[in-house]
Amino acid sequence: MQTARPLVEVVRLGLVSYQEGLRLQQVYTDRHRFGPAHTLLLCQHSPVYTTGIRHKPYPGPVLDRLRLLGADVHHANRGGLITFHGPGQLVCYPVLNLGSFKKSVRWYVGQLEKTVIALCSRFGVEAATSPHTGVWVGDNKICAIGIHCGRYVTSHGLALNCSTDLSWFHHIVPCGIEGKGVTSLSRELQRHVSVEEAVPHLLDAFREQFGCRLAEAETPEPDRNGGASSA
């Protein structure tokens, strides 16, 4: 008897602050306490630099300089070092219980990479993995991947540059990797590729790589009290 494919709900958040994105990830993570509640949170963020888990904190003056550019700065409990999120970047936060898929973080990250590579292929862009994290087009990163997994429930995820203003990356060493660049679907194709254009391809590739079913879900109400709301 064939096991039913897991059902994953797709929640489209639109443009939200990074803080609101963190809050909503926690909301959907908490739902897994009562059984599988697989969710894909899709969004764009207002300009923000985020730092991941590392041994030493970034110097205060460095973070202050980034804030002066007009971006927020947040520390996150994902893997990886510093990166940028902003409009024109498709951010996907899968909140999955890997018990319904495969209890392997290595497998999970590999499936995310394959999802992005398949998406890029649909646009005619040849992307690949490398010894570094993320997905690359040559020596330029097109998608950052940084995840958190607690009790096999995932959070954080991937950020694919569609039409992102890449000049934001000039002020950092993206993900702490020297000598590498960044790119986007728009740059590779020499035309504007919006997040909205990329989303259906992401969903199709995710469905194929994870062997799941997808269903649209309602967008939650933004937090009116925490100062971070959807825009």
UniProtKB/TrEMBL annotation:
Its EC number(s): 2.3.1.181
**Pathway the protein takes part in:** Protein modification; protein lipoylation via endogenous pathway; protein N(6)-(lipoyl)lysine from octanoyl-[acyl-carrier-protein]: step 1/2
What GO terms are given for molecular function? lipoyl(octanoyl) transferase activity
Q: Name one GO biological process term.
A: protein lipoylation
Localization per Swiss-Prot or TrEMBL: Mitochondrion
**Where do the catalytic residues lie?**
175 (acyl-thioester intermediate)
Top-level lineage group = Eukaryota
Q: Does the keyword Mitochondrion apply?
A: yes
Q: InterPro entries, from UniProt? A: aa-tRNA-synth_II/BPL/LPL, BPL_LPL_catalytic, Octanoyltransferase, Octanoyltransferase_CS
Q: Name one GO cellular component term.
A: mitochondrion
Q: Any idea where the BPL/LPL catalytic domain is?
A: 34-214
Site residues by UniProt (Lowers pKa of active site Cys): 141
- Indicate which residues the UniProt annotation says bind substrate: 78-85, 144-146, 157-159
Q: Does the keyword Transferase apply?
A: yes
Q: Which reaction does it catalyse?
A: octanoyl-[ACP] + L-lysyl-[protein] = N(6)-octanoyl-L-lysyl-[protein] + holo-[ACP] + H(+)
Q: What class of enzyme is it?
A: transferase
The record's listing under Pfam families reads: LplA-B_cat
Q: HAMAP family per the record? A: LipB
UniProt function note:
Catalyzes the transfer of endogenously produced octanoic acid from octanoyl-acyl-carrier-protein onto the lipoyl domains of lipoate-dependent enzymes. Lipoyl-ACP can also act as a substrate although octanoyl-ACP is likely to be the physiological substrate.
Q: Which PANTHER family match?
A: LIPOYLTRANSFERASE 2, MITOCHONDRIAL-RELATED (PTHR10993:SF7), OCTANOYLTRANSFERASE (PTHR10993)
Q: What is this protein called?
A: Octanoyl-[acyl-carrier-protein]:protein N-octanoyltransferase LIPT2, mitochondrial
